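User: Show me an example of a complex going from sequences to structure tokens.

Assistant: Sure. Here are the input components:
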Amino acid sequence: MPATIRDVARASGVHISTVSRTFSAPHLVNPETRVRVLASAEELGYRPNRAARALITGRTHNIGLIIADIANPFFPPLIKAAEGQARHRDYHVFVADTNEDPTAEEELVHALAKQVDGVLLCSPRMSNSLIEQVSREVPVVVINRQVAGLPCVMMDVGQGARSAIEHLLGLGHRRIALLGGPRGSWTNREIRRAAGAAARAGGAELTLLGPNPPTETGGGAQAEQVRRSGVTAVLAYNDLMAIGLIEGLDQLGLRVPQDVSVVGVDDIALSRLTRPKLTTVATPTAAAGRTAVDMLLQHDSEPRPRGGGRSAAVGDRRTTAQVMLQTELVIRDSTGPVPETGRTRPGGTPESPGPHRLADPGGPARTTGGVVAS
Amino acid sequence: MPATIRDVARASGVHISTVSRTFSAPHLVNPETRVRVLASAEELGYRPNRAARALITGRTHNIGLIIADIANPFFPPLIKAAEGQARHRDYHVFVADTNEDPTAEEELVHALAKQVDGVLLCSPRMSNSLIEQVSREVPVVVINRQVAGLPCVMMDVGQGARSAIEHLLGLGHRRIALLGGPRGSWTNREIRRAAGAAARAGGAELTLLGPNPPTETGGGAQAEQVRRSGVTAVLAYNDLMAIGLIEGLDQLGLRVPQDVSVVGVDDIALSRLTRPKLTTVATPTAAAGRTAVDMLLQHDSEPRPRGGGRSAAVGDRRTTAQVMLQTELVIRDSTGPVPETGRTRPGGTPESPGPHRLADPGGPARTTGGVVAS
DNA sequence: CTGAAAGCGCTAACAT
DNA sequence: ATGTTAGCGCTTTCAG
């Protein structure tokens, strides 16, 4: 069992408060006693118990980062950026993965609550009211979602989706599908809203496919639906789904971008490695991570009143900023001009339409949760 | 500031110990008082402070997972598996990323130490003596490394590397490069040892290239060296490097597997998505995560003696098991027969050898840290 | 500069 | 079934 402050005090012949000072306010202790204390501490392998310390100081110097799916390459840059920023300010980051499960999410906030000074809720799947509730237990900054009254860092995926649709319109596409993401995703709603409006404005038809799990599998599973729907372009909820979809289309004999154009969202590193390279809406993930940490720790340097209860120091809400980070469409190889005269379908099946597919789509796609907007 | 147990006691007119019992041993309290207490708690938004609780029980019901690089897709399956197993046993997992930095690694162990009941050290980069030292502060299970006296979960990459080399030998390759990973990696040493022995046994020459950062960039950066070295096959430290290398070779005009065969290690999901699909040594990452959690929590159900200091309950060393998990070579499309007559190099440069490259290699490659084994 | 004392929020004997 | 008491390991007034 690890040595405690008392063991060190005994070994070095001083009172425990002197040992305490040696570690938390070294300048307040006589240099000679300090070295004696340090020596005993070293010898006993003593390390201050940060949990006990936090109980009284109210500060752990840790921050929690809760994310929906650690396997999604979208998150690592955000995590790294948050870690870097936290490190600058002498904080450590603990990451928790929720597996896209709202229940796990809530549990994890509570598990983390008293082990950290604040929590970054990244792409939360729980309800707004629950978010508000947990924010009364521990300071929270929300990433990738707007919650009234709470500090939020968002990325303007609405603008991104608009640019994507306009890009596709410019290439002549008029029948476009939106490959939706998971239920409960704010990003998903934003994309749908903005893409719908842009399509409407451009006189295009937007077919909604989803909700889907935001993974390659989720994207690939909709390849058949995309084929049936007769669209010439697809905007996917994220790059992973876009890549999965391209794979799936490939297996159906449909080429990207010759037969179908595909746009993703996120600009994960992988999107430059696949063939074709993915056209996608780049989101400023690293900036989001840094900003969120800054917002959480903005009052870090202020003094704390005594008497327990975490004070205004971390996550105070006097200045509940909500910041919207800009996105940017990066055009690569997965988008191209609309096929001239409808398309011949190499992987043709009985449902496969003739060359006049474009003129005679045979009605909107029927999908679980599918909708036709405009 | 959050409500404490005292607030609830006051509000419901009972002693704080009754409130405590209501939450930690509900069956010991009268149903009627229980509902009263619960009601006040609900109303006040009271949540037991798990840090304070841990201070006395010695159990946080959290476990820490320290990994070298959260951006490496090798880890997520391990993380998910650990989380799942932990969840079964009513534990939560906090992940910390070290960025391949031994210093950050040590800091994070200390930051986590008292917030968790034990730590899983995954592919640690710090020295064995440091690992032993931190293991005196908090129970530790080491993954992907062998440390005497500590519980370890390893994957038999040695066997995997041997299979990979034998596979290449079977395809006729006699000049093979080993694309090394990061310094301080146990896996790296194992691979080098086993691959060296297998190459020697098969009468092949093994050129060592490295150390390198275990990333796509790290792999791609060695493409030129690989070309110069005149090898016909490469075994990479991991899939990421293998994929990066294939990219790099592609840009030099070398085709995989026609000109060069490439084998990775890990079998990350991505290795099935790239073209060509990667031949690789599949490591049982999920099993490793589960096993490590089991080893850490093996004495979880035992009673704990009173008097502070975490006891035998978690991470006890009475049974310091070291388990070695099996690996398996999965053959896909990135390996093929050795080029018949040396290879014509589409991307040929002044250094480019003629068709008799194989017979006249012009000496071993000179690389930073490069060695020629056998 | 150092010691004494109080207490962070909670649990766990021990009584009653 | 509930209250009393004594701390877990540490920090922080307050004296001296």
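The lines above are the inputs; the final block is the predicted structure for all four components together. Residues 14-18, 21, 28-30, 33, 52, 54-58, 114, 307-309 of chain A lie near DNA strand C (CB under 10 Å from a C1').
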